[in-house]
Amino acid sequence: MENSVAPTALVTAVQDAIPDDAVLAHITTLFKVLGDKTRARILYALYESELSVSGIVAVLDMSQSSVSHQLQTLKQAGLVKNRRAGKVIYYSLADHHVISIFGQVIQHVNEDKH
Fold it and tell me: In this protein, which residues make up the domain named HTH arsR-type (predicted)?
């Protein structure tokens, strides 16, 4: 037998490991936010460098209103943060977790190409 844990004990252990509904709701919301191509493009740009809204507009050739709307969604999801320098607001990925997740997704997708 590969697994020395009794089947009922294994079931109980797995059941106990599953997060509660509030955590699962947050996880699914995060994946929904990540599942949008426009937001993924913005995240990829911010993965490469901190950028202002006008910088993102230029890099991605999008309208300012569209970029601002998507940044608001990304910020509400906790994926991006901003800082003000004078009149300019710069955006970056929120923290090392987001950087790591996005980096791993990119690496995973690129592995499938080879």
Answer: 19-113
Q: Strand order of the sheet with strand 80-85?
A: 51-52, 88-93, 80-85
Between 86 and 112, the higher pLDDT residue: 86
Token pair 């993924």: residue: 40
Residue 47 DSSP code: H
Whole-structure pTM value: 0.80
For the chain, how far is it from start to end, CA to CA, in angstroms? 36
Per the rule left: phi > 0, alpha: psi between -120 and 50, beta: everything else, 80 is: beta
Task: Report which residue type is found at 108.
Answer: H
Token duo for residue 23? 């955590």
DSSP secondary structure code for residue 79 in this structure:
S
